């Protein structure tokens, strides 16, 4: 009886974990450049003294859906969207190099170029700092940033930096707890001059809200089934105890 209860209990617990993954995907349906996580379930044998006959279910995230999100035109000079494969290099909070597809850029009062999450954008020589004050900024398909200093004539355009783009292959990437991606090796990826961007546009989230909602409903149904199984195990145990008392 306890084996029956153990399977149902572990199934309900893992169902809640799967629900959390789906809920996180749905919460980021409007987050620029977000990549949804996938889930899968499998049976696992429990190891340890007295547990060789125990099997439990486990939900895990085998990877990330790296398909491109929709490209949305904004007409804003500092918005960029990666064309095809590739990543924008950024500086994570711990100082390490990480990667994202979020391309809604801006600069703070010191000229530091950051994205919508206030993460510094990396260039060939570290975080990019624009020479303030400036009247106009434009970004070429290759990631070259050109500015017009404040008060300069319209034809005066100066190249000041180049955004670092990388393309190590999606199978080499993994998401960190901060939501940014890194190489599985932990090393920084080499820049790739073949990666290009579309200026005046951003990439939206690749989350399909309808798909996530359907998946959440299905997980909730499974959770209800596991709880019912636990109740059945309790009733069966109570009936067995009654029979032993009668005997």
How many distinct beta strands? 18
Largest sheet, strands/sense/barrel: 3 strands, antiparallel
Please, how many helices? 2
Task: Give the averaged pLDDT, no decimals.
Answer: 87
- In N-to-C order, the SSE pattern is HEEEEEEEEEEEEEEEEEEH
Strand content: 25-35%
Gyration radius (Cα, Å) is 26 Å
Spans with pLDDT under 50 lasting ≥5 residues? none
Distance N terminus to C terminus?
Answer: 19 Å
Helical/strand content category: alpha+beta
Order of strands across the biggest sheet?
A: 6-5-14
Helix content: 25-40%
Question: Could you please describe the fold and organization of this structure?
Answer:
The protein has 247 residues and is of the alpha+beta class. The chain has helices at residues 2-27, 209-246; strands at 40-45, 55-60, 71-73, 80-82, 87-91, 97-100, 105-107, 113-115, 122-123, 126-127, 134-139, 144-149, 158-162, 165-166, 173-175, 181-183, 197-199, 201-203. Strand 5 and strand 6 form a beta hairpin. Helix 1 packs antiparallel against helix 2. The two termini are 19 Å apart. The mean pLDDT is 87.
